[in-house]
Amino acid sequence: MNFRVFFCFVVLLTVVACKQQAEPQSESASVAVDSLDMRVESDADLASKRNAALLLVDYVKLDGDKYVLDISEDEASELGVSPENYRYQLGEINKTNELIAQMKANGDSIELPDIQTLMRGAK
Predict the structure, then answer these.
(1) Is 87 helix (H, G, I), strand (E, B) or coil?
(2) How much is the pTM?
(3) Rounded distance between C-alpha atoms, residue 13 and residue 52, angstroms
(4) Measured by CB atoms within 10 angstroms of the end CB, which terminus of the chain is less buried, N or C?
(5) Residue 111's beta-bridge partner residues?
(6) Whole-number Å distance between alpha carbons of 114 and 111
(7) How far apart are CA 92 and CA 100, in angstroms?
């Protein structure tokens, strides 16, 4: 079975930025669901994550069977990416790498797209 791990590109562009909210919010709010508190992000938070993803996607490289972020937190800060958003994007890349490793461990045949090649084709 051949799986194309194209969704990692979507993850890197922060899925939450594409998420539609039923009601726009100007500030963060907490919502209790089945005794769990879930944080609902504000439009500003989502926009900030989306902007960070767009700035950092140029630094996502395919290194063998995993993706790496080829920019330091300090360098990203110079581009206007907050430390929190840098760490969030790095976490998303790590989650993608974990999923890739799980798929390979399950014996799935996967093809990893080179994000930079895809970006050049999209420009």
Answers:
(1) helix
(2) 0.66
(3) 9
(4) C
(5) 4
(6) 10
(7) 12
**Distances 11 to 31, 42, 53, 87 between C-alpha atoms, Å:** 24, 19, 9, 14
How far lies 67's CA from each of 35, 45, 50, 89, 99, in Å?
A: 36, 25, 19, 12, 11
Partner residues linked to 2 by β-bridges = 109
Length of the chain measured in residues: 123
Amino acid letter, residue 51? N
Residue 52 CA to residue 1 CA, distance in Å, equals 34
Sequence-distant (≥ 6) Cβ neighbours of residue 122 within 8 angstroms: none
Task: Give, in degrees to the nearest 5, the angle at Cα 88 between 85 and 92.
Answer: 140
* Residue 61 one-letter amino acid: K
